[in-house]
Structures are given as structure tokens and as C-alpha cells.
């Protein structure tokens, strides 16, 4: 009887361990299937609204906010680096910090008998994020060095807005561009203290000289062709 009891106990322990292992495995699989939690909040969330002015370079604005408890680096990419560029093309945001970035795009004139605003822009933009340790200098190479930790926040489509027709979207675009212009004016003033990455008052320090922007524009097309 003692041997039978001992065998039953061993069997129960084995089943219990097997059940725990199975539960752990299922939990791991379930976690891997969960969508990646967003690190940034974007406004607009998945579209970039540009005024429709054929043959001209136009611009739009997008608000980016860090919703994490740690510093987050962000980076823009585009499928059309020759006709589009972003300012700033990347940066590092402290927890809760936000900025308004400006996106520039050349609008191609309509072809054949195509009506204005009917053309579908194939240009796309991508915003990527990466958690970083504290206040460090932003360099685009961060995303290459820690590629496995990089997350795609959003793919943004281009939407044209008719300037002749007042709309809430157009009004919001004008407000955001005015805010972005105000930020640029502040950044042009000589800084009182030298910073390294993120300025107080939610402003990213202007380290993007013309030659730097040209270099970054060449990098932005990488990784977007697969979109």
C-alpha cells in the first residue's frame, strides 16, 4: 500500500509540473502574439494632411508625444526622400514630452486630364521608436545598433486638402503649422545653456544643419521600401 501511495504522489507531482510547464508555454506564446505597445502618441494618428498646391513645396505638421516612463528616440522615414523631408528628422523625447514636427513635400502637377485632389499619392512616411537610457545625444545610428528593439509606431498616408474649401482639418493644420513656426523661432535664438539632446519646455535642440539634413534624407528611404 505504501508503494502504491508513493507512486500516486509521484504521478500527481509529475502532472502538476507538466501543467505548469504547459501554462508557461501558452503564456509565452500569448504574449508574443500581443501587439506592441505604442511608445508615442501621434496627432494626426495615421495621415499627413498637405495643402494641395501643384508644382509647389508644401508642408504639414504632426504632433509627437512620448507616453512612456523612459526616454524614447523617434525617427522619420519616407519612400520619397528626393521630394520630401522632415524637420526634425529624429530626436529624443523625455517622458511626457511632446513636439510638433514639420514635414515638407513637393506636390506633383496632375497628369493628363486628372482632376485636382483626385490623384492618389503613393508617398508614405514611417515613424519608428526606440527606448533609450536617459538624456543622450540623438544620432540615427542608434536605430541600426539596436535594431531588434526598434518598433514601427505608424505608417502615415498623404492626404491633400483643398485650400479653397474651409474645413476643420485645414484649420487644425494652420494652427499646428503656426505652433511649429513658433518653435523654430525659439530654437533660432542663442541658447542660454548648452544642452545635449532634449531641451526643457518640450523643445528638441536644433542640431540639424543643412548638410546633416541632406545626410539624413539619404537614410530615410532605407527600410521603407517594404511598406
Automatic annotation (TrEMBL):
PROSITE patterns: MSP. Residues 39-161 form the MSP domain. Residues 1-30 are annotated as: Disordered. One of its GO terms (cellular component) is endoplasmic reticulum membrane. Gene3D superfamilies: Immunoglobulins. GO terms for biological process: endoplasmic reticulum membrane organization; endoplasmic reticulum-plasma membrane tethering. It comes from the Eukaryota. PANTHER family: VESICLE-ASSOCIATED MEMBRANE PROTEIN-ASSOCIATED PROTEIN (PTHR10809), VESICLE-ASSOCIATED PROTEIN 4-1 (PTHR10809:SF101). Belongs to the VAMP-associated protein (VAP) (TC 9.B.17) family. This is MSP domain-containing protein. The lineage of its organism: Eukaryota, Viridiplantae, Streptophyta, Embryophyta, Tracheophyta.
Amino acid at each position: 500500500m505504501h508503494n502504491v501511495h508513493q507512486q500516486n504522489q509521484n504521478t500527481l507531482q509529475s502532472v502538476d509540473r507538466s501543467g505548469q510547464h504547459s501554462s508557461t508555454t501558452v503564456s509565452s506564446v500569448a504574449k508574443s502574439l500581443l501587439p506592441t505597445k505604442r511608445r508615442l502618441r501621434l496627432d494626426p494618428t495615421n495621415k499627413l494632411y498637405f495643402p494641395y498646391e501643384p508644382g509647389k513645396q508644401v508642408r504639414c505638421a504632426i504632433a509627437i508625444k512620448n507616453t512612456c516612463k523612459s526616454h524614447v528616440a523617434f525617427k522619420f522615414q519616407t519612400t520619397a526622400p528626393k521630394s520630401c523631408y522632415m524637420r526634425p528628422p529624429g530626436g529624443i523625447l523625455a517622458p511626457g514630452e511632446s513636439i510638433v514636427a514639420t514635414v515638407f513635400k513637393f506636390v506633383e502637377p496632375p497628369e493628363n486630364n486628372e482632376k485636382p485632389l483626385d490623384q492618389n499619392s503613393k508617398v508614405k512616411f514611417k515613424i519608428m521608436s526606440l527606448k533609450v537610457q536617459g538624456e543622450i545625444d540623438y544620432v540615427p545610428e542608434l536605430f541600426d545598433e539596436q535594431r531588434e528593439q526598434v518598433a514601427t509606431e505608424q505608417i502615415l498616408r498623404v492626404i491633400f486638402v483643398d485650400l479653397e474649401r474651409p474645413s476643420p482639418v485645414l484649420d487644425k493644420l494652420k494652427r499646428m503649422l503656426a505652433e511649429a513656426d513658433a518653435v523654430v523661432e525659439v530654437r533660432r535664438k542663442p541658447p542660454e545653456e548648452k544642452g545635449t539632446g532634449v531641451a526643457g519646455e518640450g523643445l528638441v535642440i536644433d542640431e540639424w544643419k543643412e548638410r546633416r539634413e541632406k545626410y539624413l534624407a539619404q537614410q530615410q528611404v532605407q527600410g521603407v521600401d517594404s511598406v
